[in-house]
Recover the amino acids of this structure.
């Protein structure tokens, strides 16, 4: 699968098969995150991969009871130990983690897996469940598993609503 196909085939999957993910596939997915770019190449991301059913159920509760999260064979908890702010005023942690997570999502798609970003969760609850130290930011979760649904049609704005040439025209 080429990158363009993976981009088109990725979608937010909210129904998963009860099927374990092969260790080789998990390794390939983590490698995709490892190779992502980061500000100053700090690579300050940390990923905790949760596969135990009882821990996944605890994370469901920390994520507003989104039940599909408990169905997914794995939940990736993406953290950062950076509070660095760039000259542009933006924090690097959420940006770097987001890039790595989207690498994960696209790599997973190529491997026949599906993902869903999870921003609706309480970081302090996740921290407690996983013993994450107080100096580490829990940035985002991602469900990962074999899809049991079909990809819906992607609803997106036309290109000229979101991009323009040379000068701001919006
Ligand atoms: C940062 C971020 C947080 C999200 N959080 C959630 C979430 O908590 N629960 C959920 O079901 N979907 C979540 N989504 C998925 C979005 O709803 C989804 O990406 C969007 O509707 C576009 O659909 P698609 O991913 O299928 O293309 C999140 C997506 C992003 C990028």
């Amino acid at each position: 699968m080429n990158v363009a196909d993976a981009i088109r085939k990725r979608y937010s999957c909210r129904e998963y098969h009860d099927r374990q993910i092969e260790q080789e596939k998990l390794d390939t997915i983590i490698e995709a995150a490892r190779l992502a770019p980061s500000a100053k190449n700090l690579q300050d991301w940390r990923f905790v991969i949760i596969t135990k059913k009882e821990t996944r159920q605890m994370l469901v509760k920390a994520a507003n009871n989104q039940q599909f999260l408990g169905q997914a064979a794995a939940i990736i908890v993406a953290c950062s130990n950076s509070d660095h702010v760039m000259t542009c005023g933006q924090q690097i942690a959420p940006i770097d983690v987001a890039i790595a997570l989207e690498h994960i999502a696209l790599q997973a798609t190529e491997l026949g897996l599906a993902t869903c970003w999870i921003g609706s969760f309480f970081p302090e609850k996740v921290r407690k469940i996983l013993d994450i130290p107080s100096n580490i930011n829990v940035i985002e979760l991602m469900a990962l598993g074999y899809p049991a649904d079909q990809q819906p049609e992607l609803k997106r704005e036309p290109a000229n609503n979101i991009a323009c040439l040379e000068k701001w025209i919006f």
Q: What stands out?
A: The pocket of flavin mononucleotide is lined by residues 11-12, 14, 66, 116-120, 154 (CB under 6 Å). Residues 105 and 115 are 6 Å apart (CA to CA). The longest helix spans residues 92-110.
